């Protein structure tokens, strides 16, 4: 997927509070941003509450630095009875540049859940 193939789900700026003890942007922060991006797609498709149940194939390709603009693109890959697989890519852009660099990608699996936090079926017809 190129950076324009998926839906732009989140655009944010990496801040000093997002760093690890060495001053680098923490991979966990980036993963949480990706989870938020994927969950917005999953929530819309499921018409309600969802839970992340797995993350597959995450590879860090390039670092993110304080001040970088981070754009997260998400795309629904598949829908099952109660689950969805969503592919997410993260791209960074330095504040003084126009070029974007791919940072990481991963596939997130979500399950639609009810008010009791039990899995529930997803409407087979997207709205």
Task: Write the topology of this structure.
Elements: E1 7-13, H1 27-46, E2 50-60, E3 69-79, E4 83-93, E5 101-112
Antiparallel strand pairs: 1-3, 2-5, 3-4, 4-5
CATH topology: Thiol Ester Dehydrase, Chain A
Unreliable runs:
none
What CATH architecture would you give?
Answer: Roll
Strand order of the largest sheet: 1-3-4-5-2
- CATH homologous superfamily caption: Hotdog Thioesterase
- Backbone shape: elongated
Q: Beta-sheet strand percentage? A: 35-45%
- SS field, number of helical segments: 1
- DSSP strand tally: 5
Percent helix among the residues?
10-25%
Largest sheet: 5 strands, antiparallel
Please explain how this structure is put together.
- The chain is an alpha+beta fold and 127 residues long.
- It has a single domain, classed as Hotdog Thioesterase (Thiol Ester Dehydrase, Chain A), CATH 3.10.129.
- It contains one helix and five strands, in the order βαββββ.
- Strand 4 and strand 5 form a beta hairpin.
- The longest helix is centred in the first third of the chain and has 20 residues, at 27-46.
- The model has no long low-confidence stretch (mean pLDDT 92).
